[in-house]
Fold:
Amino acid sequence: MDNFSYARAADVDGALRLVAAPGAQFIAGGTNLLDLMQGRVISPTRLVDISRLTGLAQIDELPDGGLRIGALVSNAATADHPRVRSAYPLLAEALLAGASPQLRNMATVGGNLLQRTRCPYFYDLGFTRCNKREPGSGCDAMDGFNRNLAILGASEQCIATNPSDMNVALAALDAVVQIQSPRGSRQQPLRDFHRLPGDTPERDTNLAADEIITAVDLPPSPFARHSHYLKVRDRASYAFALVAVAAALRMEGDLVRDARVVLGGVAAKPWIIDAAPALLEGKVLNAANLEAVAEAGLRSARPRADNAFKVELGKRAIVRALTTAARAREV
Amino acid sequence: MTKPIEPSGTSRRNFLQSAVAGAVTLPLGLRVHASDAAPSAAPPSAAPAPLQATLTLRVNGQTHELSVEPRLTLLDALREHLGLTGTKKGCGRGQCGACTVLVNGRRINSCLTLAIMHPTDDIVTIEGLADAEGGLHPIQSAFMRLDAFQCGFCTPGQICSAVALVDEHRHGPDNGRPMADAEIRDRMSGNLCRCGAYPHILTAVREALAHG
Structure:
């Protein structure tokens, strides 16, 4: 790891001032950042430690009945929080499916939003061509080992995936990211926060260099009783998803009244199946209706040589996740 | 290289050593030499002045003061500066769990955090689990009695992780609920064992959960 100067921020305004220096980056949990620095994928010249900023490590009730999760709350504390477990069990399930207990104790909600891809060609400097790491250099993954790379929303420049489980659940829960900068505050729906690669794969998100994530807001959710996070991976635990599905339903008897279906592990962002609510509203979850959602979700899939299996896997995972979600959960 | 300091005291010598031009005072008494402040005197070809920081670490109840580079990981600080080599360096990238230590009672990978980020934390390593008379922690005893290791390299991390697992269960939202073997395996999955001692590790953790 290259050396760097270190500064600890006392508050958000101070953090924004300190990070304005060229080559500066924030560090909070550090689990992804230091891993990338150990591999020299990135080499910041200054780290601004925001891990002890006050006010951002708490979970608060919102006036509308929703929940505000501070950017510095750990993944473990979020998953264990009583309100998250009762009102947003999908989020707790997704968080507990990710990483290891040690990493969940360190990693923050804000950092998880900014987690970089685990594409091996991005991570390993032994490969010289990676448009995300070095714009314009090319992409060795395109015709390389691409078993776990994107099948949806990729471009000629990049087929990296977003590795986060949390982001998939947040997309299904209509989460909103709270952002601050010297220019003021703004908020952005989670669905618009991450970017597809297009011609600028080096940009993972729409967060500007001078901005900081302060919180993630969850609106009141009608999905607490009927939701499921299904993660399909090579090992039973502690592995990134080949395909993941966040399925959330609002049911009246046997009829679906509202639905969210989001895929993980298949694109550079949580892949929201926008057709799902209309396809399921007022319907029973029979085989034909489930199949319709699965087909709609993977219709635009463009697999590469090694990952065509993800298309069928994704369809079957959608069917299973929705079927499991339909069974009522104890809350 | 390091010496324990009085709880109330600052090491005068380290304080003076760090008080050079370009030093920046930060909250919590931390002093960091700013690299961007003093390059003018050096010829362009010279390497930039080394970045050093003075920091305190509280490990196994003892406070230490160190003068180190900011890039020093907590793992390397424990092993190389404090001589606490019980904590192992496996992958150094957060994948194997051999470096697991307890920070404020919570298990973390000490390879993926900077020593400088823990000035006010209570850090416990494998060396700090036994009681003052040297009596082993119940989980250390369980690992020995149940033969939960072969080569022993991953064992300090496994034990620190198991100590935290039992504590998380006792104080967590599922307090009292029996933990299925599959869940124990899942909650220990951040610790790899290349000898494959997993069945006995599982038995030791299961026993620790039952007897607390």
